[in-house]
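Demo today. Your pick:
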Amino acid sequence: MTQNTPIPSDLRRWVNEHLAGVDLVADVSWPKAKSQVWRVSAGSQAAYVKISPSALDYQREITGYQHAERALDPDGAPRLLAADPGLQAIMSSPQPGRVVRDLPLDTPDEQRVYALAGRALRRWHDASAPATDRDREAIGASMAGQAAEAAACLDSAGDQLDDAQRALVRCVAEELPHLARQLPAVYRHGDFATRNWLWDSPSGVLGLIDFEMAAYGLAAEEYTWLYAAVWVERPDLKTAFFDGYGRPLTAEEDRLLHLLTTRLGVSYLNSGLIKNDSVLIDRGRLVLARMADQDW
């Protein structure tokens, strides 16, 4: 979606039903095709309004808000103010703070933020209701699909990998379904990246946002982006995170994380080669090099 898009008229009418006297509307969408988010204000009152890209995203986000209210501190996430399934619209309270991704922080503050993120995610996971048989089937299907994708990428782009990288991608294809059956399911945030953490330095509060990918899965799935983008080069932040989380990864979770991140890397590379996209190619090569350099 292009930023500065006017709020649709039917959404504007709905907003006015829940926040009378709106006098300011600002498009604050992420610069990606599916993002439709506005900040609306009525005098000193403000809220965020979002159109979910699909009915599934809408339902996941509603459930995620409900879970956040149960699991997190009162100031640990925005609150759901109103929702309309017909419009797939969600209105939520403002969450203090600034997006952590690319936020300039000194090392002690970075470590504090990561420890707080680990603490918040542990509370989120611990509040999970037991997974159903359908949830477990969905997790198994997801892992089987990712294993198959890794095998297909190896066939397509294997000549772009060195021997260690090829061997690691084969492990992804062979091990993911088996590992998934060994590990307990949790209700995941689903997009636990620093773009969805808000750090409010004056209050010392870290808040979580964006729940449209919340669903049952494996805890290690939460860490794939963090591992590839941050922890490989900043093990101190990994340590701080798991200090906050309250326990380290088990050996099986650590292996799963390594393989899932490898799958992400080879997928980036293969997509980049197909699309002739140098950004994806470079990203894939970097992730694969980092994963193959780890001591396994």
